[in-house]
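Check out one such.
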Amino acid sequence: MNAVNLTSTQISDRTSETPSAKGRVRVLHLHSGNLYGGVETLMLTLANLRHLCPAMEPHFALCFEGRLSGELRSTGAPVYDLGAVRISRPWTSWRARRKLKELLKRERFDAVICHQPWPLVVFGRTARAEGQKVIFWAHSGHAGNSRLERMARRITPDLAISNSAFVGATLPNLYPGVAAPVMYYPVALTASPDAPAWRAALRDELGVDDKTSVIIQVSRFEGWKGHLLHLNGLARLKSRNWVCWMVGGPQNPADQRQYDEVVAEAKRLGLTDRVRFLGQRSDVPRLLAAADIFCQPNQGPEPFGIVFIEALWSGRPVVTTAMGGALEIVTESCGILAEPDSPDSLAAALDRLIESQDLRTRLGQGGPARARQLCDPAAQMNVLAELVRRVKWPS
């Protein structure tokens, strides 16, 4: 399943035009805001590139101040602070709901979009009580049996958006009667005329010559992101000329434990001199321009994978494992899918690319077209505006 088909019966039997169908739709995005990853990257794209979709006006309401709130405000988009919430402390939820209620009485929105179950649990009933259309945007697969998912099941949204067909297949576990069209993320696909200069400067800064293949992974330090599998694949290629940059830093105690385990494994495998941990970076496009191969060998299914799209757009062949959303993104025109949980299969894929400049070039050239086909920002943002416009108003 590719981008959502707005004429499908799955959508049309639940939708009708909003009062603002002839003009701009105003959308309030609800999110916690205390971490930074794919969901946060999406929200920043919606803010930064809002000029590409005049039909939609995005607003944002967050519970925690941090990197996301700061970056959103820097775009000039409206950002509302609802105050810190801990579900285990009911008074914090009551206070935040009161703020949201005041906001919804003061401002008119065509829909409230809850990103992930947490904001739906905290704010869904309040938004519905104020007569809002409530949309649930699913950014990961749902088995439906966690405590938070069981709480979310009590609040049925008017529409559920899936960020991949993989995720969409799990939505019946939460909302079996709710339409859940697949809409791939809009991703900031902007031209980078300075990429050659970035490449030369960064490789010089990090001490890498032109003959060395740079393999890069950009991700949070979560176990399923495959850092340990990556290291064990690289350990089989010690005779090849490569270095690896691992980009990202711990954002919570669980991330820190995983980071420490990965660093220890690199030392155990004798890779300390060839694997560099670059920490949290805000210059990922520059790093991708300086690299040769993008590798994130997931050990659990990626719901979608914005970073795969970013790597393809930068012209880097992508190596990942054949599972989850990656199966919808990576084709033989732009990357290689390794067998899941197989260091040997991963090593073989990387070895092919390290040894063949021609293969790297051919797959790299196929990346930008694939990225635009799936995630052109103007096209996808207009799809979102149309979805919002067609959802029925609560009766």
Summary: The domain at 195-375 is CATH 3.40.50.2000 (Rossmann fold). The chain has two domains: 9-186+376-390, 195-375. The chain has a mean pLDDT of 92.
